[in-house]
UniProtKB/TrEMBL annotation, chains A, B, C, D:
InterPro entries reported in the protein's UniProt record: 3-OH-isobutyrate_DH-rel_CS, 6-PGluconate_DH-like_C_sf, 6PGD_dom2, 6PGDH_NADP-bd, HIBADH-like_NADP-bd, HIBADH-related, HIBADH-related_NP60_sf, NAD(P)-bd_dom_sf
PROSITE patterns assigned to the protein according to its UniProt record, in alphabetical order: 3_HYDROXYISOBUT_DH
Active site: 168
One Pfam family this sequence matches: NAD_binding_11
Protein name according to UniProt: 3-hydroxyisobutyrate dehydrogenase
Length: 289, 289, 289, 289
């Protein structure tokens, strides 16, 4: 396929590499052009404007947040895009913006697919992402071959793109809540002289298997929050988005409110670039330890 | 072994049956004696006072809560118990009472082992409980053969009995927090028209495998909270105990505070006897659904 | 003085009336022009564009929220305004927008004063508002005579306009927290058979005199939330802004998080247009009453 | 009147002094007898057992907490007390214990009046306490002359003694919530460069007059938490009791949960003996300041 790709952060680069390996033609664009160089060496065609990427069979975007997206995907860009183009937005953005973009694309005869991913850069590099796709079924059908080279599984959520964003935000909220809870439990057990690793061994053997409790639990047990797999700053961004999405449908999320406060506290102590397992540190500090 | 057993609720009965099957002699006592009848038929010796149970090689107790325990295990009972007797308390009680009991037993030359269990009655019946044991190593060594017939795994936590109780309460706190979070996530996704079961499929396939998210998630997705596997009323009891144990070591647990408030709200709406997945109902009601 | 006035809600109308009574010339503009009619009868000059209001000695604006303000006060309007014009924005807006506006005005040689007010329409009508003013001292000096006819007291906060907005939002956060607390206390005392009015009599006689506890407390005691003096919907708007202002300086506000959740719950139950004393209803409902 | 008095803390001593000044006969008892010496000099008769105090027309008690009360007021003491004796308990105790004591006294033909007070030792010394009395009207009538010399106002709440305790706990909960809110607001405004004292001036001039906001606000503005007028440790005790009283009637108090967590955090940082305005410090620390 002839694919445009906008946004070459760690995740974007890994996705493009897998697209190239699978034989797709990829026109790449990034605000800082040097990020594109290694991809050029691997066969990507580097273009000099988002508009040049916004063409072909489909264009994928993976930008940092709502602001970055608004700075690139504007009315003019959509106006000049070829009718029928499919835009697959893989970033974690607000539900409100996803809704707005779906509408703006439809008005101009473009297809908008929201396809946020679960998984970190190492998972992206291995082509093992979990993709949560929302939007018109025919559009998703057409890009499914591309999804198959960057992810191991695509979940189709519904015909409204923003529903995929809701799903992603809810998943990240659950992740954040689990890490906050682990941090609090660590403070409780260590306060009574029990080693956090012993506690982890017990709960991950039965109630809570899986990568979240084991991975973040270990970081908390060892009080080692670097290198960051998922930064506290980004965790806070997603919790804010989950709260906003919930607010939009008049739904209180009291646990998310607690996690938000804890993440703000982490940022206030200069820990925004650390892994968001640093929530364990927030809890320990509150207990004076 | 010659074993006494005090407290014949569902869990106690299942444990005694496994002890009998393994060939142990068991003297059983319960406040309501009719609970002992089926066990008598299976070979247990029914005694008419706690004191008669409080003898032999070891005595196990599985009473409902702190109050029930205090009503049975008093100074007089300990005074008349044979020196060197091992008392294994398998109930989920407060850390403060565990500490007090450890001290009271030691004063009278008795051994006190705290061995709270993870697992519900069906797990107990299958002899597959997870046992978290705290107390003097030699005492635990001596009762280990009994643990092996009622549980599939014994975790030894430390020499202070109350540390096993802390572990159990921390595990139940994590459970309660996971269920509360599931309930909130359900309100978020369904508020945007996404089916909870679809969301569950995504998260249990990757981030959150295991019985907790699948089991409680399903109840929440189906809004079906009966029959109760773990009652909201008992969940609240354990969260209160976790908060008290944390308070005793000056540790705030903000997520536990949120869960406590939600469980109280469930009780206030008459749902105390339902499964504590009814936290999903609490969240839905707050969102006006 | 020759004054422009933009935004003729209840508050704006009351302010303009007092300006007219004091002999000022007022050019008024509102999106729905019929709101201007009664003022025309009282001597105001009705203009047909914001730009016509944006001239003279000073222009005052009192628009509903950030979105309404952004829709009216745009780059073009500022570009064409006469240099040296003072813009006094009396609305409760976000700290971020206040900062942005201060910057945008300064760039074009205009003076920006933030002067949010404490007080409801009846207080505005009586010319008894409390004005919290932030911005350049000389600009405030020049509009002080106008402040003196719409308010009984002007507090000068600092030279940064947004500091006045912070102050207003913090005051409204305190108000919301007091009402939430009253609601919870009402549930506690009535749950034990004590009349809320008896409780109110005790606390307002000593600890908590003043209009907030008496006024909102009475509404809660009588479970009567209409007519609304301050709507729950607007209370939520302000709590959201307070949380955002706090987030911007990495400050958790856990009580504000709780109040936000409660107000969302009120909205979810269709009570957004009721007085925000309806927080008492939220608390009562949670307790099953 | 012939009065017994049990518990000679700061509050108790001040009350007894006022009783003596008014001409009453007072038999005093305290666990540490040296606390009684200055009162003996002022005319009190020092007795050597609680039982000797538990006689005459009425006995007043002012003990620190539930545990201290249980240690002194036991079944034997009540058994030997003269029938018809009125016991006025002025301490802030749990609602559950108040209910239990009311029952235990009634069984033995004794009258139990709960009369917790609002006011600190300096207010007690001036005879200006606010008394919140619950219990049988005739019993309160008989001790009213004594109330009149230790307090400036007696509020009669109802015929159930524990209702007076609920009232007191609800009042202290409101106090704690106001101080927590002040602390959070201080972090918000100072985070934006606004002086807390300026903010206080604005809110106490209008919305929030009265001693609570002015007094605690000033301590927070000056970040000066000693000498303590009301210790954080005691504030936490009362918030715990309010939460327990609410739990007993299935009422969630989310703001109280937040305040409890903050007070625990203060204790964890060694600030339990400081004034509970130290909640301002907790909030500042969370914001990294």
């Amino acid at each position: 396929m002839d694919i445009g790709f906008i946004g070459l952060g760690e995740m974007g680069v890994a996705m493009v590499q897998n697209m190239l390996k699978a034989g797709h033609t990829v026109r790449v664009w990034n605000r800082s052009p040097q990020r594109a160089e290694p991809l050029a060496a691997a066969g990507a065609r580097v273009v000099s404007s988002p508009a040049e990427a916004f063409s072909g069979d489909a264009v994928f975007s993976m930008l940092a947040d709502d602001a970055a997206l608004r700075a690139v995907i504007d009315a003019q860009l959509l106006e000049h895009a070829p009718r029928g183009l499919i835009h697959v937005n893989m970033a974690t953005i607000s539900v409100a913006l996803a809704e707005e973009l779906a509408h703006a694309h439809a008005l101009r005869g473009l297809h908008y697919v929201a396809a946020p991913v679960l998984g970190r850069p190492d998972v992206a590099a291995a082509g093992k992402l979990t993709i949560v796709a929302g939007g018109p079924a025919e559009a998703i059908d057409r890009v499914q071959p591309v999804f198959d080279v960057i992810g191991q599984k695509t979940w189709r959520i519904g015909s409204l793109p923003q529903q995929a964003n809701v799903m992603k935000l809810a998943a990240n909220f659950m992740l954040a809540a689990a890490v906050e809870t682990l941090g609090e439990a660590a403070s409780l057990v260590t306060g009574h002289g029990v080693a956090m690793q012993d506690f982890l061994d017990v709960i991950t053997a039965g109630l809570f298997p899986g990568p979240v409790y084991q991975g973040y639990g270990k970081m908390i047990a060892e009080r080692r929050y670097e290198p960051a797999l998922f930064k506290a700053r980004l965790g806070l961004k997603d919790v804010r988005l989950a709260l906003a999405a919930a607010d939009a449908v008049s739904t209180p999320l009291p646990v998310a409110s607690v996690v938000r406060d804890s993440l703000i506290e982490a940022i206030a102590h200069g820990d925004g670039e650390k892994d968001f397992a640093v929530l364990g540190q927030v809890s320990a500090r509150r207990a004076g330890r």
